[in-house]
Amino acid sequence: MRTRVRYQGETLDIGEFAYDLRDFHRVVVISMGKAAAPMWDALRRELEPALQRAQPIEAIVVEAACLLRRSLPGFFSDQRRGVGDDREGYR
To answer: Pick from 58, 47, 50: which is nearest to 22 by CA?
Structure first.
């Protein structure tokens, strides 16, 4: 992430895209997967200057581990296939 995401001045660079955060009333970050929390923590440190000036930044962090730990009726949890729906026609 450090090579693809950077915040300098008021500009958030993500890959080849650059966003001036002053142009946005609200920023929502969605982080999903096994490394969701560490990725958000790393991005939050990058965005610290924007947070200091009260830029509204919200985060939704969903880690895959919480999905795989519990079994939900009608869904399977399989490390090889991930989480899915066991209804006919899903596969």
So the answer is: 50
Give me the helices (H) in the chain, please: 36-46, 48-52, 64-69
pTM here is: 0.60
How far is the C-alpha of 37 from the C-alpha of 31, rounded, in Å?
A: 7
3-state DSSP percent of the chain in helix, strand and coil, to 5: 25, 35, 35
Tens-digit pLDDT profile for residues 45-62: 888 888 888 888 888 888
Q: Give the pairing of strands 57-62 and 75-78.
A: unpaired
